[in-house]
Amino acid sequence: MVRSGDHGMIGGMSPLHALAIAGAGAMAGMMNAVVGSGSLVTFPTLIALGYPPVLANVSNNIGLVPGSLSGAFAYRRELTGQRRRLLRLAPASVVGGVTGALLLLQLPGSVFKAVVPILIIVALVLVVAGPAISRRLDRRNGGEARSAVAAPLFCSVLLAGVYGGYFGAAQGVILMALLSTFLSDALQRLNATKNVLGSLVNGSAALVFIATTRVDWAIVGVLAVGSVIGGQLGGKVGRRLDPRSLRALIVVIGVAAIVKLVVS
What we know:
mainly alpha
């Protein structure tokens, strides 16, 4: 990332550009509904089309918010009975998203490039080791289900929100790793929780960006349409995956995120 002052002139969006951005938005909406990391499709697409980095990142964040909401709505069945959990975790996501957005506008890009790959590696380790960690925690708790939101989970979700507001790629991987480690619940239900929390992070960051920096609303509009469609498709695809397949997909996308961030 670069500072918000590095804005360039944005010309008119050609039909070909609009088609490419809409397609990337649809793919991102599907990915975000299933696991996350949709920004790894849309952000590089915008950069490849010649948009300045911060303008692309900001517009990308705002444009994907409707898709995140679409994905959360597609998983509404799995959200049944999770109201109390979501109400307890929502403030962490909102505060984290706002904080991350403000950091994006202040910190140099070198901080992002150095720290983010490490965060994703830790998240993937948690995804792979999650079942073993959960079994150990269950034995320690005498088999009692871990459905309550404890302080470590709240703080972890807060930090994930800071990261999500700052850039957001693989935010879903990190959230899924945290939720599956700290909570004992079906993976599809945790995925639904992840979709809501991710929407709160992105929405909070979007409000900061709208209020404080430049936005390309043409990008936002095209991404929004594509991501909403993708979010609904992702909800249908993701619900059909069994837990092992979902974990495998999380790992694959997470590894791809690391490679993309390291080589870019």
